[in-house]
Predict the structure.
Amino acid sequence: MKRLSPIILVCNDDGVRSEGILALAEALRVLGTVYIVAPDRERSAASHALTLAHPLRYEKLGPRVYAVDGTPTDCVYLAVNGILKKKKIALLASGINKGTNMGDDITYSGTVSAAMEGTILGIPSIAVSLASRKRFQFHDAAEFSLRVARKVLRHGLPKDTLLNINLPNIPKEEIRGVRVTRQGKRIYENSIVTKKDPRGRKYYWIGGDNPSRVDIPGSDLEAVEQKYISVTPVHLDFTNYASMSALRRWKW
Ligand code: MN
């Protein structure tokens, strides 16, 4: 009997050389044949951008490792429709990102967007992020990603749904468990830095220090703060169904 070896695509937004993607790919290798198709440089907060106005190129860095000069979404698109065109991809895993992707941040996230693109293209997809800015414990996060990948390969995922996973960056003995969560909400304050360049012109840098969060019970942000691994099923249908009947009563 032929041994089944599922094809697994690994992407990220921190770039093909990030330790996070290497740890993730390494962990998933026990499940099947892993391909890395990832940006050739960091593209964090690239969101779901697709490159349409100029050509895309990729470089093969090694066996089943490709660096693309585009966004995370470009990578998934190019992998599915080009590099791996003749193969059936069983799973897409994006990450492991340096830093969380929770609350409103998932709309900016290249990591989550790669998983969105996978979902749109019909591939069960997960995004994995680690809650820290330094000393990342990728090994434990990769181990957990493997557990999730096994489950996704076995059960599949609901229609138009990806799993957005965020892990506290603490030793696994200190992790209190896994929570299935809802998307939370951040509060951003003073999140722009204004300085002057050497020629005296002002410039701006987006993003300040540790934003706080709205207290939403059962949210991703709450779970990670309380030392749980957060697993959020993210749905690609953005429709607010509850508002539809009220909107229909507007005088259109
Ligand atoms: Mn990133």
Q: What stands out?
A: Residues 7-185+215-237 form a domain with the Stationary-phase Survival Protein Sure Homolog; Chain: A, fold (CATH 3.40.1210.10).
